[in-house]
Amino acid sequence: MSPTTNLGNPLTGPHPVFPTAALPPACRYPPTMTSTRRYNSPNSPAVMVIHGPEVFDHGDAAWLLEHLSPGRVIVAGVMARTAAEESGLPVAFDGRPPSRVINDLKEAVFLANRGKTPYSGLVFGDIVASRLGSRGLVQVECSDGRVYCWNGGDLQLAATLAGLTGYALEELTTAVQPPHHTRQIRGCIPGEPVYVNGIVIGRATADVVVLRSRQGTVEPVSGLEPKPHGMEKLLRGGTFDISTAWCKSGTIRSSAARHGGRAGRYGRIAVIDHCGHEIYTRLPEDCCGVLAIGDDTTAVCGHICTHRGIPVLGITDNDCDAILPSAFAPGSLVLDTRPERDDDAGAEIAASVPEGPVCWDDWVQKIADRYAGRVTVVLDLREPSL
């Protein structure tokens, strides 16, 4: 298709709709860097905010970049960042929820998402739009090829996006929100894990899970088979408002992690204790390895660190919820602490982590020797000579 020009286009302005240059080759960006390359003129006002890894894993992100030429691309979310780094596409990263990212942008903006089902994608757009007030939201939902214009959002932008993608355009209004201190997690599939603030609190038994905050605790109202240890870990983090917490159901990512080269063996060790969703804010620049405490935390850290080649020492007690495909970088070691809880053994090991740089292989060997009579090796990806 030959390039065309649309002078009144709010997305691209007076610039080619389809770039003539091929997409740039894949490249890796360190966690503190952002690419300044763009597919069109910096005068293009529209910003594409991407949520979730599936947009990258299914090729939607590259396709949208090629066909829409947004002025900037911002990735919101932890696992979306992992998929974005693996893709090598030029994007910026923001760990906050999409609604907060969008609220702080002055330019025209649209949200790109691929829900696990078309309905869950619609539900997600409804939630984000409900938090944007009168601004409204334009959502490109890739699961079924639709552009949603929520709450009187930028209809001209939505129409432009629909025209460029061939997606159907729909104008929608957000649903009535549940009472304060109550949360509905819609679009669940019975049997799948349910998360609050990155912690699995149980498994769905219906397509809607209802939770309620009461006297500093969170309790299930309906649709959930609770996981007591998960609820305990959630409340250990302090009180919060369930109506604004990060909630989701299903796997965190369905695609396998892509392996990268081994990170440096000397550096500092990051400790991630039952908070895998905070890993990017806790990784030091000279990170040589991660101590991950908890089954799900070990799985998340292993998956995220695989692309960067950062090994993980996982402390587990066989309480995993199969939230994403297993992956670990070379040099990783996973230990089962049963009959002890991973919380207790993990706290002991965390207390022995040096503050300064160490040799990862040497430190892991010391831990393996020290706890040899108390743990069982589940996975060992260290070099045979160690």
SSE topology:
Elements: E1 47-51, H1 54-57, H2 60-68, E2 72-76, H3 78-87, E3 92-94, H4 98-103, E4 109-113, H5 118-130, E5 137-141, E6 146-150, H6 155-165, E7 168-172, E8 182-186, E9 193-196, E10 199-204, E11 208-214, E12 217-222, E13 224-226, H7 228-236, E14 247-249, E15 266-273, H8 279-282, E16 287-293, H9 295-308, E17 312-316, E18 333-336, H10 342-351, E19 358-359, H11 360-370, E20 376-380
Parallel strand pairs: 1-2, 1-4, 2-3, 4-5, 6-7, 15-16, 16-17, 17-18
Antiparallel strand pairs: 5-6, 8-11, 9-10, 9-14, 10-13, 11-12, 15-19, 18-20
Number of separate helices? 11
- What is the percentage of strand-forming residues? 25-35%
Q: Report strand order across the widest sheet.
A: 3-2-1-4-5-6-7
Specify the CATH architecture of the largest domain: 3-Layer(aba) Sandwich
* Major sheet size, sense and barrel closure: 7 strands, mixed
Rg of Cα set: 22 Å
Would you tell me the overall average pLDDT? 85
Distance between the termini: 57 Å
Helix content: 25-40%
Task: Note poorly predicted spans.
Answer: 1-44
CATH class of the largest domain: Alpha Beta
Structural class: alpha/beta
Number of domain units: 3
What overall form do the CA principal axes indicate?
globular
Number of strands: 20
Here the CATH topology of the largest domain equals Rossmann fold
